[in-house]
Amino acid sequence: MTEHHPKKNEAWSGRFTEPIAELVKRYTGSIGFDQRLALVDIEGSLAHAEMLHHVGLISAADLAAIEAGMAQIREDVRAGRIVWSEELEDVHMNIERRLTELIGEAGKRLHTGRSRNDQVATDIRLWLRGAIDEIGAALTTLQRALLDLAAAHAETILPGFTHLQVAQPVTYGHHLLAYVEMFSRDAERLADCRKRVNRLPLGAAALAGTTFPIDRERVARRLGFDGVCRNSLDAVADRDFAVEFVAACALVMTHISRFSEEIVLWMSPQFGFIDLADRYCTGSSIMPQKKNPDVAELARGKSGRVFGHLMALLTILKGQPLAYNKDNQEDKEPLFDSVDTVLATLRIFAEMVPGIHVHHEAMRAAALKGFATATDLADYLVRAGVAFRDAHETVARAVLLCVERGIDLTDLSLPELQSLSGHIQADVYAVLSLEGSVAARSHIGATAPMRVRAEIAWHRARLDAASEAGPKS
Ligand code: ARG
Predict the structure, then answer these.
(1) What's the Cα-to-Cα distance from 456 to each of 152, 200, 369, 449, 451, rounded to whole Å?
(2) Are residues 304 and 260 in contact, defined by beta-carbon separation less than 8 angstroms?
(3) Share of the chain above pLDDT 90, in %
(4) Is the peptide bond preceding residue 398 cis, with omega within 30 degrees of 0?
(5) Backbone angles phi, psi at 232, to 5 degrees
(6) How far away, in angstroms, is 238 Cα from ligand 1 center?
(7) Among 202, 326, 333, which residue has the most ligand 1 atoms within 8 Å of its CB, making it the best to mutate?
(8) 427 secondary structure, DSSP code
């Protein structure tokens, strides 16, 4: 049993009589992807080592050696100088081995009172916390870009749609503010999820805790966690926070996808509402006339990856008995890819939004076409004392008349309108105008230009206050 086999993993091979099969090693190894955790793994180890010394489990000399060794490894990771070894399975054992190569005996004492199970759970939480803060910042930048565009179009009128049929006129600024609402909810959801990410599993060890007199609160404070996970079994088994996070990402991508769909639709000549700066579009290798909104299409498509990751994480968790199981190693790639996809998408959209060029005339013409102010006429009759249902009926007859004659409501003469309802006066034409229609909707949440400007100011103040408060840890 003491025979040294070069292919053995020294962290656990003592109990084995033959080396691991080559295919198994490749199948079970995670170093190919979990090397992304290297810097947070080092951070976690340093906090653990400091605590071990504080409670008297390792000497000051050991701690100093660990700190010096880890500083060296951190440099090497940053400079891309580390050669990761598949023999060593994962990032945790790669780093521990490197540490021991550098500092000898002290490196072997680091793993006292911990397990890779609580170590990896700690690493993911640290990593994810950083990712959440980056996504939060990207959401803020995108919201600011949308607010700037909304400010430029507080008075620009286009048809609002329901069932993709012209419904009522709205301002483009108001339309853009709807997306600001969505992305602000996304930011709220992530901030809430961060509270549950930001708890320390370390100290749970393999699953039952440890016999050593550790100080978990101390480690939590040092790593900027809000508190410790209070049940060791749950601490190593829990990945709920990852599910929540990817669910929040799935909603971010849903919102991006809806916005993308409108960009694609509105850029088509059939709508002709907007155009995108050339640098955000691509051409066709066969059709010389094409200018395609590829970024929006791709973002719409990429939402599928993140939805898939959410399903993957739920499935990874659902059949696992407590506590840690190797299944959990499968949490990393979905998490990493969700973060990469969401960040890249938010960043490109924040850049692309100012490049949206608006065709006012096309928007206006479309709003004039579909009887968009029919509801305004009904409301006018209601103000004159007609019951809403009767007013609705009268206006429906007016629309039918227009459809038959191929004209718009404003093309009906006053006597024609009055033949439909005795309550109609010459002032009716003001409510039939697009400007009159949007300006009349000025309460909180509605589309009037003055309300859009007020909302933009409100959102800007909200974002300013949030960035002054800064990141939480
Ligand atoms: N690479 C593993 C993971 O990602 C680390 C924990 C392994 N623990 C174990 N007992 N095999 O989950």
Answers:
(1) 11, 39, 29, 11, 9
(2) no
(3) 90
(4) no
(5) -65, -35
(6) 13
(7) 326
(8) T
Residues 6+ apart with CB under 8 A from 95: 38, 41, 42, 45, 73
Cα-to-centroid distance, 254 and ligand 1 (Å): 32
Which residues, at least 6 apart from 453, have a Cβ–Cβ distance to it below 8 Å? 151, 154, 173
341 Cα to the center of ligand 1, angstroms = 25
| Residue range 186-236, pLDDT digits in tens | 999 999 999 999 999 999 999 999 999 999 999 999 999 999 999 999 999
Q: Are strands 165-171 and 157-162 parallel, antiparallel or unpaired?
A: antiparallel
- Give the nearest ligand 1 atom to 91 CA: 1
Confidence of residue 7 (pLDDT cuts 50, 70, 90): low
Q: To the nearest whole number, what is the mean pLDDT of the chain?
A: 95
Q: Which of 116, 207, 238, 327 to mutate to test the pocket of ligand 1 (most atoms within 8 A of CB)?
A: 116
CA of residue 441 to ligand 1 center, whole Å: 58
Interstrand relation of 356-358 and 274-276 (parallel, antiparallel or unpaired): antiparallel
Q: How far is CA 161 from CA 67, 367, 370, 457, in A?
A: 62, 10, 10, 26
For atom 12 of ligand 1, which residue has the closest CA? 329
Q: Give the atom of ligand 1 at the shortest distance from the alpha carbon of 332.
A: 4
pLDDT digits (tens, 9 = 90+) for 296-343: 999 999 999 999 999 999 999 999 999 999 999 999 999 999 999 999
Q: What is the dihedral of CA 82, 85, 86, 87, to 10 degrees?
A: -160
Catalytic residues: 163, 284
One-letter amino acid for residue 272 of the chain = G
> What structural domains and CATH numbers belong to the chain?
20-112 (1.10.275.10), 117-152+171-211+224-359 (1.20.200.10), 374-432 (1.10.40.30)
For the chain, the 3-state helix, strand and coil shares in percent, each to the nearest 5, are 65, 5, 30
Question: Which amino acid type is present at position 230?
Answer: R
pLDDT, tens digit, for every residue of 426-472?
999 999 999 999 999 999 999 999 999 999 999 999 999 998 887 65
- Evaluate: CB of 122 within 6 angstroms of ligand 1: no
Pocket test for ligand 1, best of 93, 127, 329, 332 (most atoms within 8 A of CB): 329
